[in-house]
Amino acid sequence: MPQSAWALWSRAMIRSRQSLVVLAVAAAAALTASVLPVAAQDDQRGTGLPLPRFVSLKADNANVRRGPGQEYEIAFTFVRAGLPLEITQEFDTWRKIRDSDGAEGWIFHSLLSGARTALVAPWEKNGQFAARSSAEAGAPIVAYLEPRVIVDVDQCTGTWCHVSIDGHKGWMEQERLWGVYPNEVFEE
Questions:
Q1: What are residue 140's phi and psi, to 5 degrees?
Q2: What dihedral angle (degrees, nearest 10) is formed by the CA atoms of 14, 15, 21, 22?
Q3: How far apart are CA 122 and CA 29, in angstroms?
Q4: Selecting from 2.60.40.10, 3.30.565.10, 2.30.30.40, 3.40.50.1450, what CATH number does the domain 118-187 have?
Q5: Contacts 24+ apart (CB under 8 A), 67-73
Q6: I want to staple 85 with a disulfide (CB 3.0 to 4.6 A). Which of 97, 128, 187, 188 is the partner?
Q7: Fold entry, domain 53-115
Q8: What confidence tier does 44 reach under pLDDT thresholds 50, 70, 90?
Q9: What is the mean predicted confidence (pLDDT) over 134-144?
Q10: What does the pLDDT read at residue 87?
Q11: Per-residue pLDDT tens for 157-171?
Q12: Three-class SS of residue 186?
C-alpha cells in the first residue's frame, strides 16, 4: 500500500474508533439515566408517604448523621423534643430532615413522631405574635407568643392554624408558623 493510501486508511480507522467510543459513551449514559431512577427508588424503600412532609422530634436527645446509617459521622444533636422537622427524603429506616434554620442530616425514623408541631416565627429575633380565640384577624387575643416557641398544631385551614401550648389554645396566622406549609389544610 502506498504511503498516502496507508495514511488515509489509518485516519479512517482512528475516526471509526472515535465514533465507536462516542457511541459507547452515549449508550452507557442513556442506559445509566434510565436505570438510576428505578434503582434509586428501590434503595429508598420508606413509608410511601408524600415528601416533603413535616413531623416532630420525639426525643430530647437525637443525633443527626451525615448519611443514612450509624456508620456515618454525627453532624449535630437535637436536644429539644417537639421540634418540628421537615422530611425531605427516605432511605430504609432513615429520614433526611431539615430544621427551621436549614440544617440538614439523617435521623433514625423511631426518633420522629407524626404529631404536628410548629415554631412561632423562627425568622424573627424578637416580638410577640397573637393567638386569637377564633380564626379571624379581629378575634380577641388569648395569648401572645414569642419567636421560636414550639406549639402543637391540630388543625390548619389554609390561612389559620389552631395551636396549643401548656393548656392554652388559640388560632394563629399560618404564615407566622414554621412546621406547616403555606395553604396546607389538615385536621388531626
A1: -55, 145
A2: 160
A3: 44
A4: 2.30.30.40
A5: 67/106, 68/92, 68/94, 68/96, 68/106, 69/94, 69/106, 72/106
A6: 97
A7: SH3 type barrels. (2.30.30)
A8: low
A9: 97
A10: 98
A11: 999 999 999 999 999
A12: strand
